[in-house]
């Protein structure tokens, strides 16, 4: 089997669903279920829990005894590490949790994986993989005419989030060079698609638009991100896990650079076509708000290595990916409602024990600095 950490989050859940659709190899999801973890994302796998090759352990990746026990019990052939605090704005308000999970948590996983790996026979040890999922934000911010980030771009993180991810990348690298642990690292650009928590730009815009709320644009709206459809990211990770060279880094990007204003206008136009308002247009809801401190201007990824060495190519371009994403949010309004009213946090009890009440509220979904 394989271990996936953070599998109840946005990309982890998409990865587990992608994996289950491709093969029967069992997956154990190590996820403590923070505000960003939503067990409902994997409802299609847990619905038939007897037949499912999927299981969830509610465990903190910083808990050494618990993680070591899971390695000993399940003897995975690989671990794909997504678990993290992932939202830049939250890292500005409260960096401590980012240091704890992203740095200490990754360190703990490396320690547990190393101890386990050292005890494997030669064949199993050679086949073992630790795949660390990271971000392009570790490379810092680009000017308008700078070349895209490559795997050799020097690290220059600017937010507590990206600094904590950079630290975790360095630890992963060190465990390969010092101890020989068979690691792989992927650094990808901004993901979007189904199951993304509506604190990030694309799902926040879609859900606020449908609720008639303002669509907040930080600063002048001309910051550029390189948007990657989450399904294409999942196929890249599966490919790197299967064919990547240990100790190497692979950048994953969609080659879809867009300003935030372009992204929001595309979303509004898609909603105008699919769910027109009785009067006016969704773009009328756009509201410029105070900029994020230290806001990186531009990210762009050069994914040539992944394309040429491993044969990866994305299936979606920005327009098709946005269309799929908007349709998913329109078709999954109960999922959105459970996130907005906080009841997703009680989904497991509600689903399996008949209990649970929808009482939590999710503060970040309310309002933005103006
Ligand atoms: P997410 O915030 O949606 O999900 C994170 C998951 O990790 C949640 O399910 C949460 O419960 C779990 N988690 C957090 N702390 C934990 C802990 N201490 N122990 C166990 N589980 C814990 O994140 P995401 O957007 O799915 O991102 C996944 C990974 O991809 C992260 O490492 C992130 O840095 C990286 N990444 C994300 C993006 C993006 O656009 N979302 C881009 C580049 C890289
Ligand atoms: P986000 O989705 O938070 O991802 P990241 O900060 O990791 O790139 O933000 C994407 C871009 O959108 C970023 O430039 C900040 C901007 N943004 C807004 O303009 N308004 C918003 O409400 C949010 C959440 C983000």
Summarize, please.
This protein is 43% helix and 14% strand.
SSE layout and pairing:
Elements: E1 2-5, H1 10-22, E2 27-30, H2 43-46, E3 54-57, H3 64-74, E4 78-81, H4 88-93, H5 96-118, H6 122-127, E5 129-135, H7 160-179, E6 183-188, E7 191-192, H8 201-210, E8 215-218, E9 224-226, E10 228-229, H9 230-243, E11 249-252, E12 257-259, H10 260-274, E13 286-289, H11 304-310, H12 318-331, H13 333-341, H14 347-353
Parallel strand pairs: 1-2, 1-4, 2-3, 4-5, 5-6, 6-11, 7-10, 8-13
Antiparallel strand pairs: 9-12
Helix pairs in contact: 1-9, 3-5, 5-7, 8-10, 10-12
Bound molecules: nicotinamide-adenine-dinucleotide (NAD) and thymidine-5'-diphosphate (TYD).
The site of nicotinamide-adenine-dinucleotide has 29 residues, from α1, α5 and β5.
**General form:** globular
The radius of gyration is 20 Å
The percentage of residues in β strands lies in: 5-15%
- What pattern of helices and strands is seen along the backbone? EHEHEHEHHHEHEEHEEEHEEHEHHHH
Strand arrangement within the widest β-sheet reads 3-2-1-4-5-6-11
Give the beta-strand count: 13
Query: Percent helix among the residues?
Result: 40-55%
The average pLDDT score comes to: 93
Given this structure, which CATH class of the domain at 2-192 and 228-255 and 296-316 and 347-357 is correct?
Answer: Alpha Beta
Instruction: Say which molecules are bound, naming each kind only once.
Output: nicotinamide-adenine-dinucleotide, thymidine-5'-diphosphate
> Which secondary-structure class do the elements indicate?
alpha/beta
Helical region count?
14
CATH architecture of the domain at 2-192 and 228-255 and 296-316 and 347-357: 3-Layer(aba) Sandwich
Write out the CATH superfamily name of the domain at 2-192 and 228-255 and 296-316 and 347-357.
NAD(P)-binding Rossmann-like Domain
CATH topology of the domain at 2-192 and 228-255 and 296-316 and 347-357: Rossmann fold
